[in-house]
Design goal:
Shape: flat
Helix content: 25-40%
Number of helices: 2
Strand content: under 5%
Structural class: mainly alpha
Distance between the termini: 94 Å
Oligomer: single chain
C-alpha cells in the first residue's frame, strides 16, 4: 500500500494518485545522462549537392499587380450589379418596406 504524502490515505500499490484526495504520487525518475552535442559535419551530403537552389524569386512588376487588382475590382462591381438586379426583380421593382404605401404630401 502506498501512503499519500498530502492526506495520509493508503492507496493500492501502482496507483498514480491518491484514491481519497486525488493528489498525484511523485515517483523518483532516473535523471537521464546529458546528451553529447552533435559534431558539425564538415562536408555537404551528396544528396543535397544535386538540389537546385532555384536562385532568387522573381519580383512581380507593379503594372501586373495594378492590372490584377483592376480585374478583381471589375468582377466585384459586376457581381454586385447582378445581385442588385436580381433583388430588384424579386421585389417587383419597388424598394423594400415601401411596397403598397401611398406617398404622403408634407
Amino acid at each position: 500500500m502506498a501512503k499519500c504524502p498530502a492526506c495520509g490515505f493508503e492507496s493500492p500499490d501502482g496507483s498514480l494518485c491518491c484514491d481519497f484526495c486525488k493528489e498525484p504520487f511523485r515517483r523518483d525518475r532516473p535523471v537521464p545522462a546529458p546528451k553529447k552535442p552533435a559534431e558539425p559535419r564538415k562536408e555537404i551530403p551528396e544528396e543535397f549537392l544535386r538540389l537546385d537552389s532555384g536562385g532568387s524569386i522573381p519580383r512581380v512588376p507593379p503594372w501586373l499587380k495594378y492590372a490584377a487588382w483592376t480585374v478583381l475590382a471589375a468582377w466585384f462591381v459586376i457581381i454586385m450589379t447582378l445581385i442588385g438586379i436580381y433583388l430588384a426583380k424579386q421585389n417587383g421593382g419597388q424598394q423594400a418596406g415601401m411596397a403598397g404605401r401611398p406617398v404622403q404630401a408634407p
